[in-house]
Amino acid sequence: MAVQDERFSLRINGSAVRTPIALASMAGVVDAAYTLARAAHVGVTFLGGFSIDEQTLEASRQMAAKGRSEFLADDPIGALRREVDALEGTGIIVGLNLRASSPDGLLRVARSIGPSVVYEIDAHCRQPEMIAVGAGEALARDLEALDAMVAALSSEGLCVSVKFRAGVAEDDRVLARRCWEAGAEILHIDLMDFGYPKIREIRNTVPLVLIANNGITSFDRMREMLSHGADLVSLARGADQRTLAGLDAAITRLEDEQGWYNSPKQLCRGGDIRSLAFCCMPVKSCPLIPTLEKIRMSRDRYIALKQEAVHETALEGGAQTCFGSLAWCCKTSSPCMFRDITLQQMGLSKREYMQAKHRLSDRIMGEVFPPRPVS
Ligand SMILES: Cc1cc2nc3c(=O)[nH]c(=O)nc-3n(C[C@H](O)[C@H](O)[C@H](O)COP(=O)(O)O)c2cc1C
Ligand code: SF4
Ligand code: SF4
After folding, report:
1. What is the pLDDT of residues 187-200, one digit of tens each?
2. What's the CA-to-centroid distance between 229 and ligand 2, angstroms?
3. Cα of 166 to ligand 2 centre, how many Å?
4. Taking the alpha carbons of 322, 326, 327, 329 in that order, is the dihedral positive or negative?
5. Which tens digit of pLDDT belongs to each residue from 239-274?
6. Ligand 1 within 6 A of 48 CB?
7. pTM for this predicted structure
8. Domains in the chain with CATH codes
9. pLDDT exceeding 70 applies to what percent of the chain?
10. Site residues for ligand 2, CB cut-off 6 Å
């Protein structure tokens, strides 16, 4: 069994994620005490949302006056520090969901709290008071303002997440790409009614950590998100201990049995571009050819890249398989006698095979998405 903390081969803000389940913020609700009550089954928590400058604090006061639950402290930064301190040593990665109307407020908080937390920009809140001061959902429509916030935090070496609702920006792919270019490391996406096709669209656009959110309270739905490009799922309204425990147990079992908890579906079954790791040689008419065209990779480069990537690895062998190497072989969920006999002869478990395919996929993604342009 894998060392618990590295089990999912997923790191955020320099730390291993214990389980790919996050708590999504709910203003006035999600704080350290709420997180501690669920600590056994979450890897990440996004505390807040917290309003952190005069404009957003005033918006929060107006929202509270209308009956919404809000965190309103006399000393917002002191309150944030106490929240973060209360979660120290729990092994949970802490994020702060922040509503700001300009980069200055974010920087003030960040310089005071430091790099131990993820800074999540709330580009999600749709309350009119928040939108009126240029915070929350207003940022999904004003990408220059959003860029400026992301860039301000990332240029201080901080880990930045952007939380947004799908379908608000003119084009979610443009929003995603601009966040990446400005230095964000995480996109936390409320999928609304768009479902897994949206997570796949964004997976095929940026190489960032993706958190899928909205109504993900069953393992089927969690797997749907993970197999189309999400790295984690998050829960807000449905984050009761029973649901979290069920998802945690199921995904941990899947990882331990199969070796790649968020392996993509095969490309011809609707998989995202990570699934090129399972694709054949480009010899027939199938979704591989248009996908290579879309990512502007020539067939020759695709062949050479996979050959280079598996050179002197377990995937190089496989003379009895369709294309003479496991580099071109399918997922273990697709039954195949030739692949399985090859694995048996090599003494390679299916789990190790999937882990090797994961490394191959990372290498392919590294070529499709070279290091982000420095802004
Ligand atoms: C009462 C309440 C307060 C919320 N406050 C915030 C917030 O402050 N910041 C934020 O980014 N999202 C906020 N959200 C949105 C949730 O994080 C989440 O995106 C949404 O509820 C959909 O996920 P779910 O189906 O798991 O609840 C809030 C949601 C609720 C229900
Ligand atoms: S190359 Fe093979 S796995 Fe990939 S899309 Fe075509 S048939 Fe499917
Ligand atoms: S040998 Fe089996 S697993 Fe490998 S490419 Fe052929 S059908 Fe797929």
Report:
1. 999 999 999 999 99
2. 18
3. 29
4. positive
5. 999 999 999 999 999 999 999 999 999 999 999 999
6. yes
7. 0.97
8. 4-258 (3.20.20.70), 267-368 (no CATH)
9. 98
10. 266-268, 278-280, 286-288
